[in-house]
Specification:
Distance between the termini: 37 Å
Subcellular location: Cytoplasm
Keywords: Cytoplasm, RNA-binding
Largest sheet: 7 strands, antiparallel
Number of strands: 7
Pfam families: SmpB
InterPro entries: SmpB (IPR023620), SsrA-bd_prot (IPR000037), SsrA-bd_prot_CS (IPR020081)
Radius of gyration: 18 Å
Organism: Jiella avicenniae
Length: 155
């Protein structure tokens, strides 16, 4: 059973992922980071809105994520847009690679957070892209839920 993550530990979140993609499955992956990247993540300025994950040569990589430079690190800083390695079990990697190749799925990062031990983790989703009618349906459902809440609140 997975524990509920508290929002105070979330370093970056991809809020549009659930709107643009139909989430099929989620999993937790570790991140290989340098010291300045961890410091920058703790500052909360990271962006994973445009990021995705891909399998290359038997390893899982996070592409196009932006962890800004840590200002106090001066010349020892990291490259903000560099590729970062994701840590998953071999069986999970084979399952993810199969879903991407066979079914045309995409690996989308949902959030980066720090677990109870202070380790940086990523919630990764196997997702299928939504088309315009699906997005309109999502908007209708969201608006209807807001109206329902207003009606119930008014009594």
């Amino acid at each position: 059973m997975a524990k509920k993550k508290s929002d105070s530990n979330v370093a970056a979140e991809n809020r549009k992922a659930r709107f643009n993609y139909e989430i099929v499955e989620t999993l937790e992956a570790g991140l290989v980071l340098t010291g300045t990247e961890v410091k920058s993540l703790r500052g909360g300025k990271a962006s994973i809105a445009e990021a995705y994950a891909t399998e290359e040569q038997g390893e899982l990589w996070l592409i196009n994520s932006n962890l800004p430079e840590y200002l106090q690190a001066n010349r020892f800083n990291h490259n903000p847009k560099r590729r970062r390695k994701l840590l998953v079990h071999r069986t999970q990697l084979n399952k993810l690679a199969g879903a991407v190749q066979r079914d045309g799925m995409t690996l989308v990062p949902l959030k980066i957070y720090f677990d109870d031990r202070g380790m940086a983790k990523m919630e990764l989703a196997v997702a299928r892209g939504k088309n315009a009618p699906d997005k309109r349906q999502t908007i209708k459902e969201r608006d209807w839920n807001r109206q329902k809440q207003r009606i119930l609140k008014e009594g």
